[in-house]
Design a protein that fits this description.
The protein has 348 residues and is α/β, with parallel strands linked by helices. It folds into two domains: 6-86, Outer Surface Protein A, domain 3 (Alpha-Beta Complex), CATH 3.90.930.60; 124-345, NAD(P)-binding Rossmann-like Domain (Rossmann fold, 3-Layer(aba) Sandwich). It contains eleven helices and 15 strands. It has an eight-stranded mixed beta sheet with strand order 8-7-6-9-10-11-12-13, covered by helices on one side. A three-stranded antiparallel beta sheet has the order 2-3-4, covered by helices on one side. A two-stranded antiparallel sheet has the order 1-5. Helix 4 (97-108) packs across helix 5 (114-120) and helix 6 (133-144) runs parallel beside helix 7 (176-187). The termini are far apart.
Length: 348
C-alpha cells in the first residue's frame, strides 16, 4: 500500500551549507543539518520546498543519481524529528494575516496542524476592557489573528492622547467602543463585534494599578484573564490567570503587602476613580499589546501561557523586558478547595 504524501512543515527552507551538507530551517528550536551527503543528494535536497512530496522524493532519487534508500532513511529521520506533516488536502489557500499565522503555528504545534489552530479561533470570544491605544491594539491583533468575536468594554470618549494608537483624530469625542469597532471592522471584516456570548478570555488594560474588584469578579465568573497595567514610563503585562490554577491578582497584592504593609492603602488611592484618561506612549502600548495578545492566542491554542504565574515589565526607553515569577499566596486560597489554603486545611 502506498504511503500518504509527506511535506516539510510550512516555513522550513532547505539551504545549502557545503558541498556535502544542507540545512533545514533557521530557527534554533528546530533547525537541523544533513551532513556527509553525496553531491546528488545535496542537489536533490536543495530543490525541496514546502510543496515537495518527500515520499515521492525518495521514489525519484534513483532517477536523479541519488541513493533511494539513503533518501528514504533521511525522510524517516525528519519525520521522527517532527519536521514533516501529511500533505494537506487540496483547497483554497488562505490569504491575509491568517496565512502567516498558519505557517507559524504549523511549526509551533505538535502535530503541525497550524490551519486547525487558526481555524479554531473563529469560535472564540475574547473580551477587552479598556480601549485606549493598548487595549485597541490588543483587540486588533486578536481580530486579524482570526478570533471570531471581540467583546469591547469602555464607555469613555476618545481623547487626543489616544491617537497614539489606531484611533484617528476624527474619532476624538466619540465613545471608545464605537471607534474601536470601526477599527476592527476595517482590519478584520469577518470578526463579530460584541454579542450575547460569554468570553473565553478577558484582557484588562488599566492605569497605575490593577483593580482588585474587577479581578474578584472575573475569578467568581471563572473566566481566564490577562492583566496589562500601564504607568508613565513602563507597562506590566501579566499575570495570566486561569481561575483555580494560577496565582491570581490578590496573590500578587498579598505578596506586595508582605513586603510593604502600606500597599493596600496605596492601592486604594491608585485605583480610585479619577477624571480624564491617562495617555499612553505609542511604542510602549504597542509592545504591551503584542505581548498580551500572544498570551491570549496561546490560551486559545490549548497551551499554557508563559505569563501564568508571572509578570513582564516593559520599561522605556529601550523596552527591554524583565520577567518576575509569582507563587500562590497561602492567605489567598484561590487555587485551593473551600476550607483549605496552600498551607493546609484551615482550623475551625
Amino acid at each position: 500500500m502506498s504511503r500518504p504524501p509527506l511535506q516539510l512543515r510550512p516555513g522550513l527552507r532547505v539551504l545549502p551549507r557545503a558541498d556535502d551538507e544542507v540545512q533545514i530551517g533557521t530557527d534554533p528550536r528546530w533547525a537541523v543539518r544533513l551532513v556527509d551527503l553525496p553531491p546528488a543528494e545535496v542537489a536533490l535536497w536543495s530543490a525541496v520546498d514546502g510543496t515537495t512530496d518527500l515520499v515521492g522524493l525518495a521514489d525519484r532519487a534513483a532517477s536523479q543519481g541519488a541513493d533511494a534508500a539513503s533518501v528514504a532513511t533521511t525522510v524517516d529521520a525528519l519525520r521522527d524529528a517532527g519536521l514533516t506533516r501529511p500533505a494537506p488536502a487540496p483547497g483554497v489557500r488562505t490569504g491575509g494575516p491568517a496565512e502567516a499565522e498558519t505557517v507559524a503555528w504549523s511549526l509551533l504545534s505538535a502535530d503541525g496542524a497550524g490551519d486547525a489552530v487558526v481555524a479554531g479561533r473563529a469560535g472564540a470570544a475574547v473580551g477587552v476592557v479598556g480601549l485606549g491605544p493598548t487595549g485597541l491594539a490588543v483587540a486588533r491583533h486578536l481580530a486579524v489573528a482570526g478570533v471570531g468575536t471581540l467583546l469591547l468594554d469602555d464607555d469613555r470618549a476618545v481623547r487626543s492622547a489616544d491617537v497614539a494608537g489606531a484611533h484617528r483624530w476624527s474619532d476624538v469625542g466619540a465613545p471608545r467602543a464605537v471607534a474601536a469597532a470601526r477599527v476592527l471592522r476595517d482590519a478584520a471584516p469577518g470578526a463579530r463585534i460584541d454579542g450575547d456570548v460569554e468570553p473565553d478570555v478577558v484582557v484588562v488594560v488599566e492605569h497605575e494599578a490593577a483593580d482588585p474588584a474587577r479581578s474578584m469578579l472575573l475569578m467568581t465568573r471563572d473566566v481566564a484573564h490577562v492583566w496589562v497595567v500601564l504607568r508613565a514610563a513602563d507597562a506590566v503585562v501579566g499575570p495570566v490567570v486561569r481561575p483555580g490554577v494560577d496565582p491570581c491578582l490578590r496573590c500578587l497584592d498579598l505578596h506586595r503587602t508582605d513586603l510593604d504593609p502600606a500597599w493596600p492603602t496605596v492601592l486604594r488611592s491608585l485605583t480610585a476613580a479619577r477624571p480624564g484618561v491617562d495617555g499612553e506612549v505609542g511604542v510602549l502600548a504597542g509592545a504591551a499589546a503584542a505581548l498580551a495578545a500572544a498570551q491570549v492566542l496561546m490560551l486559545l491554542a490549548g497551551q499554557v501561557p508563559t505569563l501564568c504565574g508571572a509578570t513582564v515589565e516593559l520599561t522605556l526607553p529601550d523596552l527591554v523586558a524583565r520577567e518576575r515569577r509569582w507563587s500562590t499566596h497561602a492567605a489567598c486560597g484561590c487555587t485551593s478547595p473551600p476550607g483549605t489554603t496552600d498551607a493546609g486545611p484551615r482550623e475551625a
